[in-house]
Design brief:
By secondary structure, the chain is α+β, with helices and mostly antiparallel strands. The chain contains 2 helices and 4 strands. The structure holds FE2/S2 (inorganic) cluster (FES).
Length: 124
Amino acid sequence: MPAFTEHLFVCCNRRAEGHPRGCCDPAGTEALRNAFKTELKKRQLGPLVRANSAGCLDQCELGPVVVIYPQGIWYGNVQVSDVPRIVEETLVQGRILEDLRILPEQLNCRGGAAPASGNPPGNP
Ligand code: FES
């Protein structure tokens, strides 16, 4: 079988209500991941493109979070309604959706602000 062309890791982490960092899947339904699976199947992009459920990707404040490899494209505040255009624009056309993109300087900043110290993030 040929290698995968892309892997989407869709955060499906769930935390107790009221947790200060929130979580990407408060309902615990994996609705976002399931929407990607459905869209990939509909577009006949499987099995070379795969949407995997992921645990916390440590970008909780920017969630729901999806990261696409091998490109290393991070998307935040991703809604089920965004799934078709992510598949079409990013996976098929190769374009980054700037309205969803988490910029490199926002990663690992616990809220999107650049770290003052440059210290790595703690554990989720
Ligand atoms: S809960 Fe999704 S990135 Fe942490």
